[in-house]
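User: Hey, my collaborator sent me this sequence without any context and asked if I could get a structure. I don't really work with proteins. Can you help?
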Amino acid sequence: MKNFFLLLFSFLYFGAQAQGNLPQQDLPNVVLIFMDDLGYGDLASYGGYPQQTPHLDQLAASGMRFTNFYAAQAVCSASRAALLTGCYPNRLSISGALMPWSTIALNPNEETLATMAKKKGYQTGMIGKWHLGAKAPYLPTSYGFDSYFGLPYSNDMWPVGYDGKPITDTADRKFKYPPLYLLEGSEPMKLIQTLEDQALLTGMYTERAVEFIDRHKESPFFLYLAHSMPHVPIAVSEKYKDKSGTGIFGDLMLEIDDSIGEVMTALERNGLTDNTLVIFTSDNGPWLTFGNHAGSSGGLREGKGSAWEGGIRVPCIMSYPGVIPAGTVSNNLAATMDIFPTMAALLDAPLPGQKIDGVNILPLLQQVADANPRDHFVYYYDANSLKAVRQGKWKLVFPHLSQTYLGTTRGNDGFPGIYKSVPVPLALYDLSTDPGETFDLASQHPDLVEALSALAEQYRKTLGDDLTKQPGTEKRQAAKMD
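Assistant: No problem. I've predicted the 3D structure and written it out in structure-token form, which is a compact way to encode the shape of the chain:
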């Protein structure tokens, strides 16, 4: 009889794993670290020479590193809406980067990672850049977060020039930005008005993250740490100035890496490491026009502001001892939208009543044989333009107008260069052998062009497409702000 029950337990345990569910256990903590404009080639574990990122290297060694992981769009607000809701942002009528004076925000009726966690009794906190609504009641505490400390939008949305001096010229486009405040909840806490103030952000966010972990060590928690950098303007605290020997961007990467190290130390000190899922990723690729103040796309084509791989494919590391085998690499397709249903599976929480686009990648994390939960990915940009579709290793790019950094003069020392826009023809790329999207194979594979075009047409009908002037039947409305 004893052997019968042992056999039954083994069957149920491994059966649950095969379905992408975990056996009953204590609810895991979740720490989600979201960088701003961090490129695919900016971490040492992704070949990011000469950057030094030992803590992130250790995080990768303790868990899984993804090589085909995507943000939903290569721009701030759209990317963040997708992360928090598990939806393509155009499904939610969110696009681009919302301005401080924007009249829309993420609809509070949308379920977020935080509201899902709250239903399971979690303590929830957000630290850092929000960028889904500039004022109350469209700040994080209206979307399931118990506490919030950070900037309401990007750190360059301030009335300060690229030289760090206040703008006095009323004709300058940056003159109309309001003062930039750090918020505590929805209340202004500190005015950010100099580059020296910007240099304090990474450290302040880190301190608050450690405090949150220490304060909630006795109950399950969800912490969303959204760093403002390496989005420009970049700045580092005195401790890290000239420390890397590779310039200010290298100094900043050291400070960011140490921030992750302090978060991991706080988990270890409180005995939480083995029961915490840590996710580290980025909202989009590097803003290459800023030259030596921008990162690297790691050989991928272009960067932020495009539907090319360098704009939308991002580094991602996940660690969860006992669930994610150490030192593993996933080459499967995955996306920030997939974090929502994956976290729902971990928390045994129901999915929202409204449709989402993410898929549960827990089987990938557990290395279930032949698991491949995400079959394809579509590349939207601008307001609602479907510019490409990927299935497996194949990416079909549709004719469109694209921003490019090629053939332009890049900026330097905090100043931007000049963009160009170029027409892009229909093209088919094999990303397994051509991640730089150089060799068009469309003429050699007309069957793939037809199949991928049919797949894209399904999305045009439901989510719309400005390029083919289709409105979409499944789009939901953003919130209208007063």
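In plain terms: The chain has a mean pLDDT of 94. You can pass these tokens on to your collaborator as they are.
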